[in-house]
């Protein structure tokens, strides 16, 4: 497999990284949902350290809490107990506006159902994070630069021929590539992918996975991917399993 | 940036938003049209009232009036100073007007106003207003064809002189009458040669007042001579007009009927310039009935039916003489009111205050024309205010429509809100999307509404014709108002306020849905499928 060859240099990089604080980590993470008087636990003390440039897969059955873990790590949700650390600093208790900004600058999200905005075309969808980051005037001044940036990324994911298309005119694979382009345009440090291949056929799923692996290897992007498909998950550096809100380490990658 | 982009996109892609735009638009357009028409009517009515009443009216509290008008006018001029433009002294008194129509005498209660036409015309708010209300200065149209040119030139000062046409008519009429009397006399003489004494009584019912045995006697002589009949028989012009001349209100002497098909509206004038009418009123001092014949010089039409079916203008000196208001010693006639035209109406309140202080309070009351017509003007204002409140409720209803539609859109867009939050949009940013969406709805709706409203006002007469044709009945009946066209008056301030209010309501209506959108939890929103 060609992937195996390219894994080697990354592994070597990992050694010094374990000394430095993990890129993203969780400490005794617990999450409950309330249903009436009942507390329904979803995460029960998850400890995880993700190194810079690591490609981590989280597998688990549906309802195991893997999506919730991803959301909590990506600051979309806040933990009931425990902490989320970015480069050793706690980030889950920051004020709302700072967390909004971290989501915009540090994290990139890829979802199972692509979640593109149906009113905007592919290019506009990809530009959305930049529009959110900059003020109207600031965006207007640099719109050409941003547009070039977005087009470059869309070229990277192979969507140059679909710039002006609305999401409903694209295939599933194209939509997911557009979503990945959107998550990358803001130059994030960590990509959080929630079942990115869950809605795609096997071939297209492999394509998307290849894209993610390339990003990880060439750009050194830290990727956390949640999936229920273990065969896909095995192509990551490391694989962890989430069962009933607890983490069990399977193996240090394939 | 994404806020603007998304709110514009939502506006363009949601047809349901069109419903809110239309409701805002209709509300705004209706408010503009109704306000313009109402203030058009109001302005037109004020102009017509103001044409009859000059800026400030000084009235005596007694119908007997005050003597020596020159002295009072001098006082007013001193007190008013530079603010006074001109003044006119008048006598106002109640009376009755009687004329014959097909052998019956028609009697109307009237308000007699003794004026000097020249000074009266000068106190009108604008030059020519008084003349324009007189028939002989107007052309007469029937079915849009001019059937009579104006009898007097517009620059001719109003006077008590009969026009040549009226004089001609009078001569002809009196000649016919006299021939008729002669014929009756001859017929009766043949039937009963001895009974000549009853000659005078017999035709009285048919014959007009000019059949008076000595119509010209009053020309030079005072009342006592009138009764004695001892005047030396001079060859006089039988057709010479009476010394008393009147302008009668159109509503007093005409009636409206419809032709055979019942569609065409016609006006029948019973009394024409050149005819004589009889006026009865009371004398000054101890009220005694007095009556006199007067020749109609002109017909007067102000457009306010209240005036047109009440007012009879009479020559001031004659009215004073008949009412016994002239002091025999120094020939000084009393007057009951002085109308004042100001140079600048804005200073009216100030002038009124000064005059009230300067004139003896028991003798005079001083008011502006607006104060004098206060209840009527206030009624119009209140009517307008109530209509505005009701119409504003329409826009509020549109606001609730926006609220409901926005809630729907927020629910529909729940997932997109989650996406935006995942991409780092703040709650405030999401809220701004929906607020600016509401703002855009309001701006577009009220913009189009303003345009439609203004166009409607501009083409209101054509629209009225179209609607009348469509419904088969006249919507704007000019017999009720005297307007040939629907009067409109667009005030820019009003338009701006209406548009602003509509935009505000649209934004306010989007606040609740926008807050709901802002509070959505991103994870819940993303789970929404």
Topology:
The complex is a heterodimer of chains A (254) and B (529).
Chain A: H1 2-17, E1 24-35, E2 38-50, E3 55-59, H2 66-73, E4 81-86, E5 89-90, H3 96-105, E6 107-110, H4 122-133, H5 136-141, H6 143-156, H7 172-185, E7 190-194, H8 202-219, E8 222-227, H9 230-233, E9 238-243, E10 246-251
Parallel strand pairs in A: 3-8, 3-9, 6-7, 7-8
Antiparallel strand pairs in A: 1-2, 1-4, 4-5, 9-10
Chain B: H1 2-13, H2 15-52, E1 56-60, H3 69-80, E2 84-101, E3 104-115, H4 117-122, H5 129-132, E4 140-142, E5 145-148, H6 164-191, H7 217-220, H8 223-228, E6 244-249, H9 250-253, E7 254-258, E8 265-269, E9 276-282, E10 289-300, H10 305-308, E11 311-315, H11 316-322, E12 326-327, E13 332-333, E14 337-342, H12 348-358, E15 364-368, H13 369-372, H14 374-412, H15 414-422, H16 427-458, H17 460-471, H18 492-519, H19 522-527
Helix pairs in contact in B: 1-16, 2-14, 2-16, 2-18, 3-12, 14-18, 16-18
Q: Would you give an account of this structure?
A:
The complex is a heterodimer of chains A (254) and B (529). Chain A has 254 residues and is of the alpha/beta class. Chain A has one domain: P-loop containing nucleotide triphosphate hydrolases (Rossmann fold, 3-Layer(aba) Sandwich). Chain A has nine helices and ten strands. In chain A, the strands form two sheets. A six-stranded mixed β-sheet of chain A has the order 6-7-8-3-9-10, sandwiched between helices. A four-stranded antiparallel β-sheet of chain A has the order 2-1-4-5, covered by helices on one side. In chain A, α4 runs parallel beside α7, α6 packs across α7 and α7 packs parallel to α8 (202-219). The longest helix of chain A has 18 residues, at 202-219. In chain B, the strands form four sheets. A six-stranded mixed β-barrel of chain B has the order 2-3-11-6-10-9. In chain B, α2 (15-52) packs across α16 and α14 runs parallel beside α18. The two termini of chain B are 26 Å apart. The A-B interface holds A 68, 71, 74, 76-77, 96-97, 100-105, 109, 111, 113, 115-120, 124, 128-129, 131-136, 139-140, 182, 186 and B 1-6, 9-10, 13, 415-416, 418-427, 429, 521-523, 526, 529.
């Amino acid at each position: 497999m060609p992937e195996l060859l390219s894994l080697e240099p990354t592994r070597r990089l990992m050694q010094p990284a374990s000394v430095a604080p993990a890129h993203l980590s969780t400490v005794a993470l617990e999450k409950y949902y309330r249903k009436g008087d009942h507390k329904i636990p979803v995460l029960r003390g998850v400890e995880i350290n993700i190194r810079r440039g690591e490609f981590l897969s989280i597998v688990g059955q549906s309802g195991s809490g893997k999506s919730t873990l991803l959301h909590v790590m990506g600051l979309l949700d806040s933990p009931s107990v425990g902490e989320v650390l970015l480069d050793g600093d706690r980030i889950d208790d920051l004020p709302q506006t700072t967390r909004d900004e971290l989501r915009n600058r540090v994290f990139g999200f890829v979802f199972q159902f692509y979640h593109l905005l149906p009113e905007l075309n592919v290019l506009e969808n990809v530009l959305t994070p930049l529009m959110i980051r900059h003020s109207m005037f600031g965006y207007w001044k640099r719109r050409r630069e941003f547009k070039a940036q977005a087009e470059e990324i869309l070229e990277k994911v192979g969507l140059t021929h679909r710039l002006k298309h609305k999401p409903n005119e694209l295939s599933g694979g194209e939509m997911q590539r557009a979503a990945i382009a959107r998550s990358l345009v803001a130059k994030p440090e960590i990509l959080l992918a929630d079942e990115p291949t869950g809605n795609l056929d096997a071939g297209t799923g492999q394509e998307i996975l290849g894209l993610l692996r390339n990003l990880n290897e060439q750009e050194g992007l830290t990727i956390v991917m949640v999936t229920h498909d273990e065969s896909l998950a095995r192509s990551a550096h490391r694989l962890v399993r989430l069962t009933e809100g607890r983490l069990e380490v399977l193996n240090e990658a394939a | 940036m994404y806020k603007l982009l998304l709110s514009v996109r939502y506006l363009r892609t949601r047809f349901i938003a069109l419903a809110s735009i239309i409701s805002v638009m209709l509300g705004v357009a209706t408010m503009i049209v109704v306000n313009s028409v109402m203030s058009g009517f109001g302005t037109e009515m004020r102009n017509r009232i103001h044409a009859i009443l000059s800026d400030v009216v000084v009235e005596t509290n007694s119908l007997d009036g005050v003597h020596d008008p020159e002295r009072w006018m001098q006082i007013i001029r001193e007190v008013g100073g530079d603010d006074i433009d001109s003044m006119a002294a008048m006598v106002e008194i109640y009376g009755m007007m009687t004329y014959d129509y097909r052998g019956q005498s028609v009697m109307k209660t009237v308000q007699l106003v003794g004026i000097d036409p020249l000074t009266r015309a000068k106190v009108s708010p604008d030059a020519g207003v008084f003349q324009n209300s007189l028939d002989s200065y107007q052309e007469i149209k029937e079915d849009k064809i001019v059937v009579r040119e104006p009898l007097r030139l517009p620059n001719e000062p109003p006077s008590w002189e009969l026009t040549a046409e009226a004089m001609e008519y009078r001569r002809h009429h009196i000649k016919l009458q006299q021939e008729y009397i002669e014929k009756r006399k001859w017929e009766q003489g043949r039937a009963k040669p001895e009974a000549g004494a009853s000659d005078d009584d017999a035709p009285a019912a048919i014959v007009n007042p000019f059949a008076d045995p000595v119509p010209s006697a009053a020309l030079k002589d005072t009342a006592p001579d009138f009764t004695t009949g001892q005047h030396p028989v001079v060859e006089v012009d039988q057709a010479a007009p009476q010394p008393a001349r009147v302008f009668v209100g159109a509503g007093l002497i005409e009636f409206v009927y419809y032709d055979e098909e019942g569609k065409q509206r016609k006006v029948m004038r019973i009394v024409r310039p050149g005819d004589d009418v009889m006026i009865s009123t009371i004398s000054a001092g101890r009220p005694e009935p007095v009556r006199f014949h007067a020749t109609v010089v002109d017909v007067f039409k102000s457009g306010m039916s209240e005036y047109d079916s009440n007012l009879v203008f009479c020559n001031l000196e004659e009215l004073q003489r008949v009412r016994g208001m002239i002091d025999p010693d120094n020939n000084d006639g009393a007057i009951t009111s002085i109308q004042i035209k100001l140079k600048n109406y804005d200073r009216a309140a100030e002038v009124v205050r000064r005059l009230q202080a300067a004139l003896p309070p028991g003798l005079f009351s001083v008011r502006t024309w607006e104060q004098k017509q206060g209840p009527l003007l206030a009624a119009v204002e209140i009517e307008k205010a109530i209509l505005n409140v009701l119409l504003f409720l329409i826009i509020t209803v549109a606001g609730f429509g926006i609220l409901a539609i926005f809630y729907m859109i927020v629910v529909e867009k729940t997932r997109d809100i989650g996406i935006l939050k995942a991409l780092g949009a703040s709650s405030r940013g999401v809220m701004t999307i929906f607020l600016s969406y509401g703002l855009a709805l309001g701006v577009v709706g009220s913009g189009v509404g303003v345009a439609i409203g203004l166009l409607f006002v501009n083409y209101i007469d054509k629209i009225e014709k179209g609607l009348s044709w469509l419904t088969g009945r006249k919507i704007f009946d000019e017999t009720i108002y005297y307007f040939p066209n629907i009067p409109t008056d667009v005030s820019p301030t009003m338009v701006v306020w209406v548009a602003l209010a509509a935009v505000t309501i649209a934004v306010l209506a989007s606040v609740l849905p926008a807050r709901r959108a802002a509070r959505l939890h991103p994870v819940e929103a993303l789970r929404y499928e």
